[in-house]
Specification:
Strand content: over 45%
Distance between the termini: 57 Å
Structural class: mainly beta
Number of strands: 19
Radius of gyration: 22 Å
Helix content: under 10%
Oligomer: single chain
Largest sheet: 16 strands, antiparallel
Amino acid sequence: CGRDGGPRHCWCPATGDAETVFSPSCLDDLFQPLLECAEAKHVPIGFGAWHWFQLDTSGRGDNGYGARNVRGTYFYYVTADPWWELGNGDKIGGHLDYEFRDKDPLRTFYNRLAWSYEAYGYYQSEQLGTLKAGQLVNRFGLDWHGGFWTGVSGFDGFTRDPDYGLSWEKTTDLSTDLKMDSYLQFFVHEDGINNSFAGADSESFVGVRERNTGVVRVVPTWTFSDGQSSLALGLSGTVGQIDSRRADFASGTTSGWALDATYKYQCWTLIGEALQVYGRRSPDRYVSGGPSNRITDFFCGLEYTPGHTTFRLNYQLGLDANPHGRHELYRAGTQTRLTEHVDLLVEYVNEKVYG
């Protein structure tokens, strides 16, 4: 594209300005009418991608767009959230989060390049809370801690882990300064989708499955009188079955607990978490090389968000027992909101597994 012999560029069709079609501001102008229309029709949609470039400082030369055996865009995603309001003010609806890749599978135990991450229907009542049914994310412990590199608890299969079941969720205002988030879940069967490393849990092994897993989580949050600080304390518990049809690994049960705290003051956020799970989840843990029967994960992190940029610094530790192993991870990075729909993340990660 060009104009009057000047520099070559493409004009943004949404505004007519002299900016490239793929510039962040033009993309915002192109997408916004579509998003507003979908919202007005009660079918909000979303779409995007996680693009990643890696510079390997370990000397192995694993540089470029993606990583070794996971080349290309990390994944693309499409979401849809249709809903309808009932006459009594209650709401029914659904949620779909579909993800796909253009090259290698996301994990070695995936046999496809496209998968459903969440797909459920729900009934929402202001008095009773929200009941969901379908493919749901497990709420054991803290959600993703932010940034790109998921971390130890994610690689152990405790974060970004959807399965098939039911979930009841409710937020209760106990006072003007105190609210309580509650979650009660039951999963009948795993879905084979997980952000974990191969060997972390049953979903990466043929012949081993998670079944009949219960999860409970409560999170009271206090907003202090200064109006600039808050404290959230999370308590989670889980119990479930491991069903094995392998000759080298017996069926059994797992149970676990998690404690977490998030303190916010103005632009600062301090996060801490400890979780422990008992029972063998896989015949060959990636940390210890064997069927460890106890996993203990720790996370501590500090965030500072003075404006459009968040600065992050955290340390994570995972410990396997019987047999033993250690997974250690340091991460420092920034996340900057370039436009309403474009974020830029820069992270340094130092990760080691001893075992």
